[in-house]
Write a structure and sequence with these properties.
Layout (H helix, E strand, L loop, with lengths): L10 H54 L7 E3 L7 E4 L1 E3 L2 E5 L5 E3 L2 E7 L2 E7 L5 E8 L6 E2 L4 E2 L2 E6 L2 E11 L5 E11 L4
Antiparallel strand pairs: 1-2, 2-6, 3-4, 4-5, 6-7, 7-8, 9-10, 11-12, 12-13
Length: 190
């Protein structure tokens, strides 16, 4: 019987060891990427949900101080509604400018510009003085199989204003995330 010499590993042993090592590193890499993608998905959906909720909460607070008689609703766009209104301060109707200083006879308009829900501050002549982005990634009209709904929809029924806002985020892997929030505001000022 011949005894094996201790000169090192055979070519087959080295090849098998390299294949196993490569397989282990590829598995670890795939798990790390999947974990990072999951974290990205969770953080982006959380941000979208938070922005959506904050926007609707802010709009609700605004409309609670608006005059129901002074609300102008435009539903002519197939994808988004827009609403113009004034708020009350010290017995006068108007809207604060960019610095927060109340301007009599000014108004605010909520409109979707591109994919952003924007607050436009308008002077008495209707000229835009400043804008503020309230929510990004606002969706266009979407047919869910049962009905078609707008990305930003407003409905007024008596003293009740129904607001619906839907956002749409597309991820790098092609997945779509749509989130819709609906709320009701009771506007009592005339």
């Amino acid at each position: 019987m011949r005894r094996r010499q201790a000169h090192g590993y055979t070519l087959i042993e080295v090849t098998i060891a390299l294949a196993i090592g490569t397989l282990i590193f590829l598995t670890i890499g795939a798990l790390t990427k999947a974990s990072a993608d999951s974290m990205d998905y969770l953080s982006r959906t959380h941000r979208v949900d938070r922005d959506l909720r904050r926007s609707l909460d802010w709009i609700c607070e605004e409309l609670k101080t608006a005059s129901l008689a002074g609300i102008a609703l435009d539903q002519s766009d197939a994808d988004h509604d827009s609403i113009e209104y004034q708020t009350e301060q010290g017995g006068s109707w108007g809207y604060p400018n960019k610095l927060g200083v109340f301007q009599p006879n000014w108004s605010a308009r909520l409109v979707v510009n591109g994919a952003d829900l924007v607050l436009q501050r308008l002077n008495p002549g209707g000229a835009q003085q400043s804008t503020k982005i309230l929510c990004r990634h606002v969706d266009v009209a979407f047919d869910d199989g049962t009905s078609t709904t707008k990305g930003f929809a407003v409905d007024i029924n008596g003293e009740l204003v129904t607001l619906q806002l839907r956002v749409h985020e597309r991820f790098d892997d092609g997945r779509d995330y749509r989130r819709t929030e609906r709320t009701l505001v009771h506007v009592v000022n005339d």
